[in-house]
Design goal:
Number of strands of chain B: 23
Number of helices of chain A: 9
Largest interface: A-B, 54 and 55 residues
Strand content of chain A: 5-15%
Helix content of chain A: 25-40%
Structural class of chain A: alpha/beta
Strand content of chain B: 15-25%
Helix content of chain B: 25-40%
Oligomer: heterodimer
Order of helices and strands of chain A: EHEHEEHEHHEEEHEHEHEH
Largest sheet of chain A: 8 strands, parallel, barrel
Bound molecules: flavin-adenine dinucleotide
Chain lengths: 309, 634
């Protein structure tokens, strides 16, 4: 039972489909108009019906004013880390600090291989990701020193750093399995899974949190350093509630409040690609959840379980 | 003539570059190219030029934005860095370029496009001289530079652009093995090669990515003859024939080879109202064909997707939503005109070149380039068009029931089934879509009722519509062309009947998650009325045609082999495996023998080989086709 005390974010998980080409841009604009905080896009470069997510992010950032943006999550095996760092920082500067770096170790290895990416075992994927995050963060700092790292996956000799982002870009990791969760706790600024893929679904969140908390503490960090985000793919509003995020706005509000208070989730990102749903999420659900959480935080339900910070 | 600006992503803040680009757009400069600064003193701030270019494209309305080639390996890093870590993947960069092009249509200058960086402080005369090598772009760092660029652009506005010979960059993009200078004069104006603006729009097809060395786009039969002559001189490179680019088996794009794209031959004409005779160019899409025939109360059964082309489908079969009532598409064919490998244009019908007419209907891609088809349309009024989605927890039972209901339905009813990966452990979404060729809504509902019991009905959409409404589902391919990527992996088979064992094995395959697209196309009815000897498509009796797509070729092949005992033959249009055994499955022995000997006669050097290639029979092989050879004019 944990509330990590983060401010709340509400966002959209948008399919970067190329049919029609402006779908994803329109959805992001709809999300902004709905008052949401975050527009995110999957990154599957081998998926032929999708647009390139990096291009889409830059394009959408240019067409929006307020909403924050992230890949959900960038496929590291197809995105060389220094290019990713450069694009992220450039976008962060252009968008005045609206970018977050969602990143993952890679999935769908057949597709990755088809694009010319190298195939790694799951274990190697985790190691490569750990190395890449270090390299990316390094390239955003200490501008005057040359960048040299003799990593196993991304060795660099006298590399170029920079540019410096406009704000500390948070690094959010898509993680499910123990080793990835450990990495997330030790290194990341956020955990970004999709509830439909979490082992055990809703009930599995606590186990993930525990592993992240544990790993964070062992790395000398606070569990609070890791924001817990969550994607919800199967969502809909209906008068007859049929499950998580499948009922009325009222039911959504109660469910998300509960997820925030009991599971520490502080960012809720919904799929569905439905502008009307985004509108209702932003107008009817988000303010109500915010209000409920504010009330609860004044009177903590479990004062003894608060986390050291 | 056109002038552009060059913005260098170096130490300058990207906001400044953005401002300069916006200002340039406002003041009528047509082009902005962003590239990473090559200057040493800029080394500290390697902004991402790609991100800046995409940002600018999103903010501007007219400006054409230049795409910077991928960073040269090692450019930003020490030389000892292994290549993998430093290079952007070319495939990802290409995809990015295509994505920007679809977000800002017509405004992306591809990296292969010729532009020339002007020297510092150029004058109008210098720029005119430079323009023969491409669009001159002027390095711009501040407002004063921009003013100068705008003034020069105004001075040169009315000067006609000199015909730009290909830039060194685009000449460098040419592939070895193709004699570009020998492109026939009739084809040169419409031909596209890697350095050209239009290249990105012709290199890929609907499902496949490619990078051909040259795309020839003949607009007349005479030009097709010229293109075939050119192809005969280039047997060292791949040759793809393209009509509308929806091929799954056929390689209508390739890497480094030649493409003859007859998409421009797309006329649809009604030639005899009384006999419902219509003449179609290979480049017409079935969606347009349906729209043209609709006002007459006619239709031609095609596949299930309006974007598919006449050329590829009418040379292979055409198992569609009217097939159980009106037969395969090739069954309505009355005449076909082709350009043979030796360049001879021929016409083939039941009586004229009848052996060729037989071969084209099922194996056409091997025998020539079809330039026109004549069909006898069917009278088809309003039909019931149904799209149903069902969720099932027992896929095996649902497949089994579907097998009975679909195959036993009256022949006015053709229903296809699509499913894919499970939603949850054992839950599948089944999509059924089909046509009931009867204008009476009560009959339509009657026919469809049994199908609604295959699972929990979660969506139903049933309308009365002309056949054109059924085919009107495809986005027309615009000037950007198609953006397929990679290589599709698909297996195809005919299923004599849908047995319980097949349902069990298929359900198991689907539960494995390996297959993301699985389709059962219902056959029978009028398809089976035609004798197997009448066309090269000879699998007339199966109850279903099955197709499965996966991202893993090897794993799918292995699983498909295990299902093999359920199958009898395969429909080539959905098969991407090129092993020789597949050919034996597509064409039973006597058919294949006959095709081989006809191939020897019509295409002895095996020029046409991009689709289920039938190697010509050896010279002394007995000619099975001798009995019909006498009618040949070839
Ligand atoms: C979304 C989709 C749905 C489909 N549905 C069906 C269906 O319901 N039923 C069905 O039967 N098929 C179906 N198909 C398969 C389709 O019929 C074949 O892939 C067909 O080859 C596509 O024709 P095209 O002209 O669009 O393709 P292209 O890619 O232009 O051509 C494919 C191949 O056909 C040959 N070819 C093309 N033009 C000519 C010509 N003028 N002369 C000689 N040979 C030529 C070449 O070998 C070429 O490589 C479907 C395909 C797709 C992508």
């Amino acid at each position: 039972m944990t509330d990590y005390g983060h401010d709340l974010r509400f966002g959209a998980f948008i399919t970067p489909t190329s049919q029609p080409a402006n779908h994803a841009v329109d959805m992001a604009i709809a999300a902004e108009q709905a008052g949401l905080d975050l527009a995110t896009f999957q990154d599957h470069p081998y998926q032929q019906s999708f647009l390139d997510t990096s291009t889409l992010l830059a394009f959408v950032a240019s067409r929006t004013r307020r909403i924050h943006l992230a890949a959900n999550v960038a496929s590291l095996p197809l995105r060389p880390p220094l290019e990713l760092a450069r694009a992220a920082a450039t976008l962060d500067v252009l968008s005045k600090g609206r970018f977050a770096l969602g990143i993952g170790a890679g999935a769908f290895w057949d597709g990755i291989a088809r694009m010319g990416g190298r195939t790694l075992t799951p274990g190697q994927g985790v190691d490569a990701l750990r190395e890449a995050i270090g390299l990316i963060r390094d390239s955003w700092a200490n501008m005057d020193e040359p960048l040299t790292r003799d990593g196993a996956y991304y060795p660099v000799m006298n590399g170029q750093r920079g540019p410096r982002p406009a704000h500390p870009i948070p690094v959010w990791v898509g993680a499910y399995k123990p080793r990835m969760l450990t990495l997330t706790g030790a290194l990341a600024d956020g955990w970004l899974p999709t509830i439909e893929y979490v082992d055990g679904g809703r009930a599995g969140i606590a186990a993930g949190n525990a592993r992240i908390d544990d790993s964070a503490l062992r790395a000398g960090r606070s569990p609070r350093d890791v924001r817990r985000l969550m994607n919800f793919m199967r969502v809909g509003m209906s008068p007859a509630g049929r499950g998580l995020l499948q009922g009325t706005a009222r039911e959504w509000t109660d469910q998300l409040t509960e997820l925030a208070l009991a599971d520490g989730i502080s960012a809720f990102i919904i799929g569905g690609d439905d502008p009307v749903l985004l509108q209702r999420f932003g107008q009817d659900v988000a303010p109500a959840v915010r209000e409920a959480i504010e009330r609860e935080r004044l009177v903590p339900r479990h004062p003894t379980s608060s986390v050291p910070s | 003539m056109e002038l552009g600006i060059l913005l260098e992503a170096g130490r300058r803040h990207p906001d400044d570059l953005m401002e300069l680009a916006l200002e340039a757009d406002r003041r009528g400069v047509g082009v902005a190219v962003v590239r990473r600064s090559a200057r040493h003193e800029d080394a500290g701030e390697p902004w991402s030029p790609w991100t800046i270019a995409a940002w600018i494209a999103a903010r501007t309305e007219r400006l054409r934005v230049g795409i910077v080639p991928a960073a040269a390996p090692g450019a930003a890093f020490g030389a000892s860095t292994p290549a993998f870590a430093v290079t952007e993947l070319r495939s990802v960069t290409t995809k990015a370029e295509q994505s920007l092009e679809s977000l800002a249509p017509g405004r992306v200058l591809s990296s292969a496009t010729a532009w020339v960086v002007a020297p510092p402080r150029p004058d109008a005369a210098g720029l005119r001289a430079l323009a023969v090598r491409g669009i001159p772009i002027l390095p711009v760092e501040n407002a004063a530079d921009l003013d100068r660029a705008v003034a020069l652009a105004e001075q040169l506005r009315d000067v006609p652009s000199p015909p730009a010979p290909r830039s060194a960059e685009s000449l460098a993009a040419r592939v070895p093995g193709i004699d570009y200078d020998a492109v026939p004069a009739s084809l040169a104006p419409t031909a596209v090669e890697p350095g050209d603006d239009a290249y990105a729009s012709v290199s890929s097809t609907y499902l496949r990515g490619g990078a051909p060395g040259l795309v020839l786009r003949p607009q007349t039969v005479a030009e097709v003859v010229d293109a075939v002559a050119f192809a005969r001189e280039h047997t060292g490179v791949a040759l793809g024939i393209r009509s509308a680019g929806h091929g799954i088996s056929g390689r209508s794009t390739n890497r480094g080879g030649l493409i003859i794209d007859v998409g421009g031959l797309d006329a649809i004409q009604i030639i005899d109202r009384r006999t419902r005779r219509v003449r179609l160019g290979p480049g017409a899409t079935w969606q347009r064909v349906a729209q043209t025939l609709s006002p007459h109360g006619w239709a031609l059964g095609s596949g299930d997707y309006g974007g598919v082309g006449v050329g590829g489908l009418a040379t292979a079969g055409g198992i569609g939503l009217l097939s159980r009532k009106h037969g395969l598409t090739i069954d309505r064919l009355r005449a076909v005109e082709l350009v043979l490998a030796d360049g001879t244009p021929v016409r083939a019908t039941e009586t004229e070149n009848s052996d060729l007419f037989w071969a084209v209907r099922g194996a056409g891609a091997n025998f020539g380039i079809a330039t026109a088809f004549e069909f006898e349309a069917s009278e088809v009024g309003e039909v019931g068009w149904a799209q149903l989605s069902l969720v099932t927890d027992d896929l095996e039972a649902s497949l089994r029931r579907f097998g009975q209901i679909a195959a036993d339905a009256p022949r006015d009813t053709t229903v296809f089934l699509v499913t894919g990966r499970p939603r949850e452990a054992d839950q599948f979404v089944i999509s059924l879509y089909g046509v009931v060729d009867d204008p009476d809504p009560d009959v339509v509902v009657d026919r469809l009722m049994p199908f609604t019991e295959l699972g929990m009905l979660v969506r139903q959409h049933v309308v009365m519509t002309p056949y054109a409404g059924v085919m009107g589902n495809a986005a027309e391919v615009g000037p950007e062309g198609q953006h397929g990527f990679g290589e599709p992996v698909s297996r195809s088979a005919f299923l004599p009947s849908l047995t319980g064992e097949f349902a069990r094995d298929a359900a198991e395959l689907l539960r494995s998650g390996l297959v993301y697209f699985f389709e059962l196309r219902t056959m029978g009815g009028a398809i089976a009325d035609v004798s197997p000897h009448e066309t090269a498509f000879s699998h007339r009796s199966p109850a279903f045609q099955v197709a499965a797509m996966s991202s893993s070729d090897d794993r799918l092949s292995a699983r498909w082999r295990e299902l093999g005992h359920h199958f009898d033959g395969l429909y080539l249009s959905f098969e991407t495996d090129r092993s020789p055994e597949r050919l034996d499955e597509a064409f039973p022995p006597p058919v294949l023998d006959r095709l081989r000997s006809l191939k020897r006669r019509y295409d002895p050097t095996n020029l046409f080989r991009d689709n289920f290639n039938i190697a010509p029979a050896a010279e002394d092989a007995p000619s099975v086709a001798a009995d019909v050879a006498s009618g040949s004019a070839a």
